[in-house]
Design goal:
The chain is α/β, with parallel strands linked by helices. The protein folds into 2 domains: about 1-155, 3-Layer(aba) Sandwich (Leucine Aminopeptidase, subunit E, domain 1); about 170-485, Aminopeptidase, CATH 3.40.630. About 35% of the residues lie in helices and about 20% in strands. It is built from 14 helices and 19 strands. Strands 7-8-10-9-13-17-14-15 form an 8-stranded mixed beta sheet, sandwiched between helices. Strands 1-6-5-2-4-3 form a 6-stranded mixed beta sheet. α2 (about 75-90) crosses α3, α3 packs parallel to α4 (about 155-180) and α9 runs parallel beside α13 (about 430-440). The chain is elongated, with a radius of gyration of 25 Å.
Length: about 500
Amino acid sequence: MINFVTKFDNKSNNLGFFVPEEQLTLKSSKVDQNIKDKVNKLLKTIDKNKDRKKIHSFDIGDNQKLFIIIIKKNLINFQLNNLGGSFRKLVSSNKNLKKISFLLSDNLKNEKLSNEEVISEFLYGYTLKNYSFEKYKTKKESNSSVVINICVDKTEKFNKAFQTLSFIKEGVFLTRDLISEPPNILNPKNYTKEILKLTKLGLKVEILNEKDLKKLEMNSLLGVGQGSASETFLVIIKWNGRKKKDKPIAFVGKGVCFDTGGISLKPAKFMEEMKYDMGGSAVVVGLMKTLALRKAKVNAVGVVGLVENMPGANAQRPGDIVKSYSGKTIEVLNTDAEGRLVLADALSYTEKKFQPKFIIDLATLTGAIIMALGQEYAGLFSNNDKLCKQLFNIGNSINEKVWRLPLHENYDKLMNSKYADVQNINYSGGAGSITAAQFLQRFIQNKTPWVHLDIAGMAFSKKASNINTGGATGFGVRLLNDLIKNFYE
């Protein structure tokens, strides 16, 4: 629990102080002189020893600790998030900690951010690192019961700044939860039930089942789920924060709840990770929750295709040709290139139905993007330079980085089919992520500004990071929320 208070508890068992690196002194009238002297003595030792650590911990009594957080004046958002995450890791290693009373030094300054933003970004990183998914463990291991009281002059400003980031955190945690669920639990039907829970926040949810999808001739999406006992759905989530006549912005997510590869079966090793293949849809759902929580002044629509790709008796075969919602025919040469088939119908439907200002789709689409960018950048493909620049700059400031790769008509030749309008893979080899994006672009038919984010390397991680304990990351929720907040509200 995190609280902002106006009175510093000098008698608290555990004390913490935020001090500026440029002036390693604690200045405040709210702290007892003997404590101030003790802290300043420690700061002199740190300065003398040229100790570059940003977080210092001292034992000042039996089961009593003193923490010093050193803040550089030019730290930006993600650096403060990382610092907060590192502090959470330190706190987790001290099982006896129950409460910490923090104080900001009066000489704390940042060149770009207010003190409210500095502390809120620090705490945002702290809370992100605090996440754990232990729903199916009989014995819980996490320790999230530490109370942090932060003494500030104006609690209203700090509460407001932190609440904004808390709303993003709620969206990130929902995304992580959805991705972490086992595939026997989060099948397409149960996924729709989870999305319906968001209606209590003011979101409007419409669910199209297989009967509806057949009427709409969404055969590209339906074909993916042919071999599964689970039904296929398209779910539309709406947030109206402005006048109804205002065009919405749209987000489309790939929701393959489990991907065996279908008839083009994947190897057994690491196939369990394919429960993550609905990561793009989870980002869309998490984003929509954040927008509703903070009552964003924007009209937004999220569209997710929910399906399971299985090698059943009725499964789609390599060589099948399907007619998509757009009217274009697709030759399915590889049933493991199913995400683009899901998105093809979802993109065309979203563009035609809602005529949005722009569309951003997210998908764990290709292994090739991991080969190209590793787990540092999401691949970005677009027909719009403005959106690209906005996302690139935001990504760098919050460490949800994106890197633009090319789209070019010459790549279309690699996706032209001999027997249909387009084929779903490039048999010539190379440019796997680019040709996948080139395929998707064909289903944006009215020149709507569009961005495709391939998040295959970013949706989950096998190793922990500064603000993640490993597993689902929630990458994309803040990126898209900040895009909306900075440019479209």
